[in-house]
């Protein structure tokens, strides 16, 4: 069988996970790379043995031999590149968030519908963590019963990466669209993707990027500029669903908190579960409350394994073996929630989505 030829567009930090995972897959050849930064594209092409590299994604999409692309660019070009790729007959794996706005999300959805069966998978990588996959089996078997409440939190004390992440034009927002997208999607997925009814949220830009802080290092984007920051530093939200369930979220790039924390919990009528920081299932049996810890290799999200699972699933979808578990419709729904939180915060009231 001919290998599936893929192109990776955007050759920055996260592209490493895509390149590596494709490289580990026997049926895939990393064929081309594109980045606005030619040096970066060339370096990645050499490292991963890609035949061609470009600085204009349209040239990559013009190659008839390419079957699929990963879109790993800044959020502001996800829609444009994904739509162009679908129109060129390529399958698409697009990094989260699907894009910056609901209008863009709907345009991508339309392009998928008109693509003659091309696969578009949204990079909701947390769905591919072993902890999530294990818990999903318990939920699907009915062990937690009806899930009516979820709570997700991802708080950084000092962690605004700067660069494009801190530039609202290119990112679409701060911790909500960057970190919130992961934990909101994870809860929504585990809750069984209920229809969203309303969103009420707050965003705050009180602390800035705190570039004054000394003796504490944090991840910085390549083009970090301490003077540039147009995104929120904290967001919180209450999301109500049509089935009566609700989800509470808070996420920050910076906050006067004692330490970093990630916590994702779902609560059902028969049991509950802590997904992060470590998978644990709570239930009741014979009038006793039980905390059950699965014996699995990693109780927390394993970054490399999660990406490998995500890419393996994408490749299986391209081969027609399965349908993607992260279709464009899910990207649209999550985009509606994120946009709803920003709108609610701006208007100071609850936003009804249905
Ligand atoms: N799934 C995850 O856990 C995860 C983690 C980090 C980032 N991401 C997502 O991945 C994407 C990239 O993030 P990153 O951290 O790699 O950023 P990055 O800045 O390290 O890399 C992005 C690269 O894209 C290039 N680029 C931007 N616009 C382009 C265009 N129009 N054409 C070609 N190249 C272009 C830039 O030059 C840069 O090299 C973002 O959407 C981000 O939200 C996902």
TrEMBL record:
Domain Gfo/Idh/MocA-like oxidoreductase N-terminal: from-to ranges: 4-124
Residues of the Gfo/Idh/MocA-like oxidoreductase C-terminal domain: 136-351
Highest taxon in the source lineage: Bacteria
Gene Ontology molecular functions: nucleotide binding
Annotated InterPro entries: Gfo/Idh/MocA-like_OxRdtase_C, Gfo/Idh/MocA-like_OxRdtase_N, Gfo/Idh/MocA_Oxidoreductase, NAD(P)-bd_dom_sf
Family: Belongs to the Gfo/Idh/MocA family.
Name this polypeptide is given: Oxidoreductase
Organism of this sequence: Novibacillus thermophilus
